[in-house]
Amino acid sequence: MPAQQETPTQTSNSNNLPYYDVIVIGAGIQGAGVAQAAALQGWSVLVIEQFDGPAQGTSSKSSKLIHGGLRYLETAQFSLVKECLQEKAILQKIAPKLVKPATFVIPVYKKNKRSPFWVGLGLWLYSLLGGSAPRKIASVLWKNFPHLNTQNLRAMYSYEDAQTDDAALTRAVLAAAQEDDAEILYSTEVSAINKTGEGYKVNSNRGSFTCSTVVNAAGPWVNTIAGRCTFGAPMIDVDLVQGAHIVLDTPAFEQCFYFESPDDGRAVFTLPWKGKTMVGTTETHFTGDPKTCTPTADEEAYLKRAFDFYFPALANVKILESFAGLRVLPMAEGSATKRARDTRIVFDNNVDTMKGYYAIYGGKLTGYRATAEKVVQCMAPVLGHSATLVSTKNVHLN
Ligand SMILES: Cc1cc2nc3c(=O)[nH]c(=O)nc-3n(C[C@H](O)[C@H](O)[C@H](O)COP(=O)(O)OP(=O)(O)OC[C@H]3O[C@@H](n4cnc5c(N)ncnc54)[C@H](O)[C@@H]3O)c2cc1C
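^ thats the input. predicted complex w/ flavin-adenine dinucleotide below
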């Protein structure tokens, strides 16, 4: 059913078009976050979304973890991990019904690329950056994981992170934005953004709107939107890297497990999801229209092989469903695993032709709130806002 939406109610500008301080393109988590942070400052906000409801792009296809990202330590992304762990703590405080603690278990086997020492070191570093204190699970307790393959198991560790329902979190953030009078238009596709003397004119299949600032929060469509800016918006070269998940017809384990794929040693995990077990994820180069992103048979087989290897007694369980989303990563040669996962905000308030245009590239679900606050800080001078900005870190989400 199409999500509830409003007809734009804002004041008109000299062309009799509706005017907003801020227009946000995209009702994924990043667009929702910016809409909430901007509306909280008292700015008038319109969110425009091409689909008939929120979070129908990447923000319902993630691994649903609110985490620092243990594996990003291997690529020395320490500031990203630290910021995400801080954000995890904030989200657990302001959205306890949506962001719940999750225990992760890492079994380390003889043939793993990462030794027990390496895993222990990573967990120790993770805790120094704000993660939970890691725990080594004594071998006498391994029998408490009845289906787990314990052949050639050398060590087991556990630590705490958090899990969410990504689409529900996005809806909650948008609801908070609406509480502060942000408006949302669904089933509305932005076709062009033109620079006007005082700001921007945004054209769509449902009419034109004007604004002082415009935020390109179109996720994997970010460069499509940049290409629709008639003022020559700068673009970052990106690769779209697909990540698939499968949901298995077996009751959820109490814990989340992190493993090395028996195929290639990549980190894969199992998570409880709606009472069942979810396995993720993959890294498959994607080209084409993001709307067509769907798991391939190879991806499903890769994830199922990993599950069967570590839970051989459950190898007969069926795949109930699968889904895939697109990571927006800086273009580079080689493995996607090694690429930076931080968010980049493309803007330049000093260049007249793009003053007030902000494009969000990449990033994590976990860091959406921090990103939104950075975007709003960049916008404030353009909107002539000199008062101290109000933070979303104390606004509860339901
Ligand atoms: C496989 C995978 C697993 C992940 N796991 C995690 C995780 O566990 N934890 C974590 O923190 N992060 C994770 N991430 C990252 C996280 O999911 C993304 O950073 C986040 O969801 C991106 O949100 P977004 O709002 O930028 O994009 P999207 O959710 O894709 O939103 C963009 C929106 O823009 C709209 N749009 C596009 N073009 C137009 C147009 N012309 N007109 C109007 N609207 C338009 C789209 O319809 C879409 O709704 C994962 C990502 C992937 C791909």
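The pocket of flavin-adenine dinucleotide is lined by residues 25-31, 48-51, 56-59, 62-65, 189-190, 217-221, 225, 243, 281, 325-327, 363-366 (CB under 6 Å).
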